[in-house]
Amino acid sequence: MPGLNHRKIMVVDEKTGFTKALTDADILRHRREELHLTQQQVADRANIKLRQYQRFEMGERSLSGASMRVGLSVCCVLKLDPYEAVPDAVKKVTEEK
Q1: Within its chain, how far is the Cα of 17 from the centroid?
Q2: Do the beta carbons of residue 60 and residue 5 sit within 8 Å?
């Protein structure tokens, strides 16, 4: 699907013991769960609509394609480093120089 960020992070699945890849959407969901937040709480704290956050977490929209305000707000709520949350966008800018 165009516009989606397909960066992968590898983790070990606790149930199977196999290594699996996490997408950016998985990272958002796992971090939210680590912080014991609901999707509604993240959306409210980031001052965005619930459906907008759900699209990020479902992989329908990429955080790197969001406005700076939205992207930084979500990163702030989830205590994520924005450079790690959207490294592909940062990489493209530095490669163009």
Answers
A1: 24
A2: no
